[in-house]
Design brief:
single chain, Leucine-rich repeat, LRR (right-handed beta-alpha superhelix), 25% helix, LRMDA protein, LRR_dom_sf, LRMDA
Amino acid sequence: VAFVVCRSLEGLKTFSYLEELILDNNLLGNDLLLPRLPHLHTLTLNKNQISFQRNTCKILLDHLAEVVPSLRYLSLLGNMACPNELVCKEKDEDDYQRYRYFVLHKLTNLKFLDTRKVTRREREEALVRGAFMKVVKPKDAKVGA
């Protein structure tokens, strides 16, 4: 297996039967465009430049839902879109859970997100409230200020 840092994904269209794709550490952002890959079930985009700026992550997740309908495993660890208290001290487990609900709301067929299996309770919560979970807490939220 060879690992290549790439910025263009144009050549993937010739691999329509591709099932697993690892695109870690490639400087990919929210403008990532994949060709239709109907058999792709595993996609890792760890340590790229994907963020929750404006609606761009929503657009990326909508794009993934359209072009990779068989997606069951997605990992976005190491991206700004994936809040992690080990990487950013302002983030906590609640931020990470809201992120999971939002992603699961958009990608309803996922069985695993990052390193965790999707639970039945998470799936139910994502259906009810996932669309509203992209909002994160303000950095300097002070009670009674």
